[in-house]
Known about the structure:
The complex is a heterotrimer of chains A (319), B (556) and C (327). Helices cover 72% and strands 0% of the residues of chain A. Chain A is globular. Chain A has helices at residues 18-29, 32-49, 51-54, 86-123, 125-139, 143-168, 179-193, 195-209, 212-219, 224-261, 271-278, 281-286, 289-316. The longest helix of chain A is centred in the N-terminal third of the chain and has 38 residues, at 86-123. Chain B has 17 helices and 19 strands. In chain B, α11 (344-351) runs antiparallel to α13 (413-426) and α16 (485-496) packs antiparallel against α17 (500-517). Chain B is globular. The relative contact order of chain B is 0.13. Chain C has one domain: MetI-like (MetI-like fold, Orthogonal Bundle), CATH 1.10.3720. Chain C has a two-stranded antiparallel sheet with strand order 1-2. In chain C, α1 runs antiparallel to α14 (288-316) and α7 (145-159) packs across α12. Chain C is globular and about 85 Å long.
Amino acid sequence: MAMTATQEVYVDESSVGESAWRQVWGRLRRKKLAMISLLIVVAIYLGGIFAPLIAPYGYNTQDLDRGLEGPSADHWLGTDRLGRDMLSRTLYSARTTVVVTTAVVLSGSLFIGTTLGLIAGYRGGWVDNLIMRVGDIFAGLPAIIMLILINASLGRRVEDAARWVEDHTFLDGLVSSGFHSYLLVFGALSLFFWVGSARVIRAQVLQLRENDFILAAESLGGSSARVIRSHILPNVSFLIVLGISASLGGIAGSEILLTWFGVGVQNAPSFGGMIYEGSGARTFQSHPHLLLVPGAVVTALLFAFNLFGDALNDAMRGR
Amino acid sequence: MSQNRLLAILLSVLAVLVLVVGGLSAILLLSGGDDDNGGTASSGGGGTTTETGGGGGNLAEPSSGRIRLASSDPITLDPHLAGDATSAEYIVEIFGGLLTLDQDLNIVPDLAESFEVSADGLTYTFTLREDAVFHDGRSVTAEDVAYSLNRAASRELSSPTALAYLGDIVGMREYFFGLADSIPGIQVVDDRTIQLTIDAPKPYFLAKLTYPTAFVVDRQQVESNRNWTRRPNGTGPYKLTEWRLGERLVLEANQSYHLGQPSLREAVYLLSGGSALTRWENDELDVAPISVNDIDRARDPNSDLGPYYEAFPQFTISYLAFNVNQPPFDDPHVRRALGMSIDRERIANVTFDGMLQKATGILMPGMPGFVDDDLSLPFDPEAARAELAQSQYADNMPVIQITEVGAGAEASVDMQAFIEQWREHLGVEVQVRQSDFASFLSAQDQQQLQAFSAAWIMDYPDPEDVIDLLHHSGSQLNATGYSNPEFDALVEQARVEQDPTTRLDLYRQAEVVLLEDAPWVPLYFGVSHVVVKDQVQGWFEPPMVVPRLRYITVNR
Amino acid sequence: MGAYVIRRLAWLPLILFIVSFATFALARFGPGDPVTVAAGQIRDPEVLAQIRQDKGLDDPIPVQYARWLGDAVRGDFGESFIQRGFTVSELIFPKMWVSAQLGFLALVMIFVVGIPLGLLAARLAGTWVDPAIIGTLLFLQAIPVLVLIPPLLWLFALQFNILPVGGWDGIFEIWWIAGVIAVPIPDPHLYLPLLAFTLPGFVGVARLVRISALEVNTLDYVRTARAKGLSEANVQWRHVFPNSLLPVITVFGLALSGIIEGALFIEVLLGIPGIGSFLFEAVTSRDYDVIMAATVIFATAFVLTNLLAEIIYGLVDPRVRLGASRN
Lengths: 319, 556, 327
């Protein structure tokens, strides 16, 4: 759980723009492991996204007469205690992981992290100080413990709020879809996953500001927004992508831990829930597939995230 | 990177580690020192005990044998504070009160030798035994009993359980809330006689006196030693001789116990460690509970566990409860429809591998008032659909959410099976919300839950403890908001009915009304499954917490 | 350097203040309280309200927090609700000691095993062994502990029955030879938690050692040593080993913070009476004072670890001038 680890990345200043991305992709394509990892990630994500189309059964379709079966022609990955198809449940769990990782990346690493990093680096002064000190505090906390406390304490309140919204607006099904629990998980995870990317981006922006072309743009009277958009953003885009790829594994892993703890997403199958049902040495002894199926998929996903992140890092450094 | 630099760094790392380890050791030594103090103080007490114990033990053959059990730390060994089963299991062995329960759950005298009830059923006069002594040899007097009952209800102690068990005594409530300085319902007549007066002729009051809240503690010890619960001086069949948090707790026979010398000399409770069954198989434990993963093996008489396997029904019931003030459960048809569309027997067999017994009503087999009939709603999808069709919510079913205690993304397995059966048989979608225990209890108490799944463990063997206490419209523990004048009248009558047969019959009628109205759908009765080593004779898992160690013999 | 450390240490009280207040507010903001949990089955709302009032649980959160802080500063962390009659300090120190011993051993193990593996990988760079070692370690890192522990338990405790299923019995067990000579051997309860703590951690150390060993190998003085005709073993031992060791210390922080966070789950799964499982129980039963004390200890350990890591990093790598970017 290296959530707070930051990495230094050197980007060749000249190598920005579309051609740079093409170069990186070219280097990546030659790395066999990177491509395999990418394939694994894409397969799991596609499986999750299209779960309703490809799952052979509903995730809740039960057959009480056929509980705890091993793999068979009907159920490729066997069934759980209630006779539900493990393959279908795995696909739907992947869907949960897709939703959570995407949302947290968008809100935490990408939106909050990038924005705060840009602002801190560009404005400097007390703004920079404030943002980075707040970041220090979040980075200094044992994230998973704080996440558990937040979700355990606020779970019911958020649900009540969602009910209130349902009662007072035309929105429906917020609570039944488990939306509020997703919201809480996103919110809490985002709180801790912005720091890394904000730090890296800030450092890069600080460096860029000293560059002649930015100074020139500024002295020519370009507005801050314009300077950031057209000169700084393209130069930190590598870092943003790297930050995202580095945080994905942590986000997916944390979601599993939270759900296993009982404070994660609700009313949806998830890897944390499946692992919870399959854990216990004796359960494993008598029905190993309950743990091995979700465990293998999760391990493959995290492994692929890590390998791909490394490869991407290398490729961006010109290796 | 010179060698000097390396050296400096290694040294500084080493220094930090030394500091950390040193600091921790210092802390350990300090806390260990506290332990030692406690140990010395109590071993002094233990010394005197052994002396008197030896004196009394000459009459019979000394206790022998040693049993090793798996358990966990008691939350407290203060009988007046305990409200959980684990604590109670230790407390009933170490302490005693005026009355106790025997193996068959009959109410029998303990410290009291006899008692009389006044004609109006309000005043109980207890005569104490002459030979009743604390572990340290001091005689138990009526003052000790009075002190203990007063202490249980005192404001300083803030016992959450005192009023539940002793609140019937005249003046107890006022005393607890600081409205009175004494409790008029408790009168010491002489050294060996104490009189308790209650507010209404309630036959179940005697049963409540068997609960730890009414147990007797040693005033001298309580007032002189803040940490007295670590080596309590009780009057029970066993003395606590060792308690290391999270490691082990040892009980040793009280050789001069007034109800007869215990046959088992020592019970060692191991308070940590992994799977009890594995440790049982390694001969580290004498008794181990069986979980759902091993039940098939245990039931097979030819397996390695088979010959040692035993099952004991428990006085626990799990149930679904519907809040009758919240739609759609304000309509009894919906409640009945939900109750009739789940196949509890089959689900118990599939999800718990038959480890639980389908509940046939509210009272468990063995409870006073139990009848050998299935009073519960039958599994009948056809009839369930008919019920639903009659309901006002037939076409516009509101969202139903059932809350249960649990962790994990999804409902417990049996709940998921229910959901599927409701979907299949009624076309009703039900969601489950998982909650942690603390939040669940507070929501339950405030009648906030639309529906929930929970369990009840009997506190004393009287139907009042579940039928009246949880369902009377005026009861504070009524979490469903259920209110039916007919039912209320029946249980109110039963509260003060002096003839036991008529009384149990009233409860039976009330139970039938309740099951028809279906604020509760009883699910299963608990069963305790264990394996017991050959050397242990007479092991039993009582349906509720009663003193049991003294009946057991171990040939080791 | 000294000034920087002092400035960072000055942050500690502020961070602890924020952590403790946030935890305090969060724990009390949630529904349910320890009074309800401790009451058991028969709960009388009036009685519980009275107890809450007597214990001051009805006061505004800042007032309660101020009271807690005042006591905590004086070393009084309150009393546990789920282990009545014991103060939080009494309960928590033995548990800290268990966690600290285990964490320390795990940390040492990570380096003791990780460094040789990294050196081996570097030595055999270019052969299949190098990627095999690193790949395996990376793979081990990817397995969540929740998935890792049940198979370990099954394998060692149930299948081969050579290790206990969990629990804790100190670091050492004494073997008596002929009833006279005492030989301390590692207690069998140690192995499973150590495996669970260390398997995900090896890769960080091994990779770094490998990279720096590869770099050192190409340095001039190593080449010179080889050219002088020193045996390869000698070169490795005298030059490569000590010089590639240095950067490894920088992963110390990462390894330790992984151990601290992992403690929560590993201790719960293996029934180890440490501070992680203590916090777990406290959170589920809303044992306020225990939650507070345990969280503050976790946060302190975490902050100090990060600081220590930064300091070491600064010592090792002169290129990183600590605090240089600040201003």
